[in-house]
Write a sequence for this structure.
């Protein structure tokens, strides 16, 4: 099963690029962020023509998340309120369309566009930290249901120095401040792991290059687009990589896609072996 995440920075502006990419990479599921379009205007038919099903949760000019999937959706949930209907904070944060989840191939996929925060002294930064605290409560619910969990998207946070082109200068600033990092780690808990770091431990792997200051030409990027997997999925990951070349397109998004390949779902023989192992343990 091939899953990808991509902040496209306006799906209508980059529709042809996304369609060409789908034809070339053939993912089973593409999770989009920053679609920047009201739901009635989402270019749904273009994806359906390629054999994909589409679910979106968007708004005009800002934010927006979507699923483009070859596989059927179950139990679709829009926003924090889709999982935390009794939460006053979830209701307050629900105006911005940043969260979409569904069961796809027996995996709870959670597609996120985490707020940027703008500046450490701004109200948007306070909003970001509140949003991340709400995310913690949100992610606890599918974990309690025992669902295999894949949380992915644009997190607007570089968790470590190796995720930034100039950590000495940028650590402590927006997207690399300790409160942001601490809040995200708390939200992810102990079970979710960054699958990219299972395969690549070095620095100089970026998923976002600012349009300003010649960041792309100078390869001055950040790794802020992540895929986190629960343990039963992590053991089935074959590879995870950043499709950096896409950032070199004409009029590209400032983000590149991140892709993970999973050996999923388990085949019948594997399930029988697991059942036998559990029965043996129960007998002992």
């Amino acid at each position: 099963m091939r899953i990808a995440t991509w902040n496209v920075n306006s799906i209508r502006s980059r529709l042809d690029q996304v369609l060409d990419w789908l034809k070339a990479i053939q993912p089973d599921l593409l999770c989009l962020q920053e679609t920047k379009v009201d739901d009635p205007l989402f270019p749904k038919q273009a994806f359906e023509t390629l054999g994909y099903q589409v679910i979106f949760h968007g708004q005009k000019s800002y934010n927006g998340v979507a699923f483009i999937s070859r596989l059927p959706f179950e139990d679709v949930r829009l926003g924090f309120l889709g999982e935390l209907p009794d939460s006053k904070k979830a209701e307050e944060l629900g105006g911005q369309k940043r969260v979409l989840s569904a069961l796809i191939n027996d995996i709870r996929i959670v597609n996120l566009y985490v707020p940027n925060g703008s500046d450490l002294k701004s109200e948007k930064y306070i909003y970001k930290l509140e949003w991340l605290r709400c995310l913690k409560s949100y992610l606890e619910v599918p974990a309690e249901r025992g669902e295999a969990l894949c949380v992915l998207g644009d997190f607007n946070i570089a968790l470590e120095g190796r995720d930034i082109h100039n950590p000495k200068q940028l650590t402590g600033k927006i997207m690399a401040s300790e409160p942001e990092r601490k809040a995200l780690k708390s939200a992810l808990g102990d079970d979710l792991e960054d699958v990219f770091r299972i395969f690549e431990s070095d620095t100089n792997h970026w998923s976002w290059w600012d349009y300003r200051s010649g960041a792309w030409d100078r390869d001055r990027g950040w790794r802020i687009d992540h895929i986190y997997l629960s343990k039963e999925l992590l053991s089935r990951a074959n590879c995870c990589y950043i499709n950096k070349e896409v950032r070199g397109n004409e009029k590209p998004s400032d983000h590149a896609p991140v892709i993970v390949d999973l050996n999923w779902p388990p085949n019948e023989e594997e399930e029988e072996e697991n059942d036998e192992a559990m029965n043996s343990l129960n007998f002992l």
Residues 2-283 form a domain with the Deoxyribonuclease I; Chain A fold (CATH 3.60.10.10). The chain has one domain: 2-283. Residues 123-144 form the longest helix (22 residues). The mean pLDDT is 95.
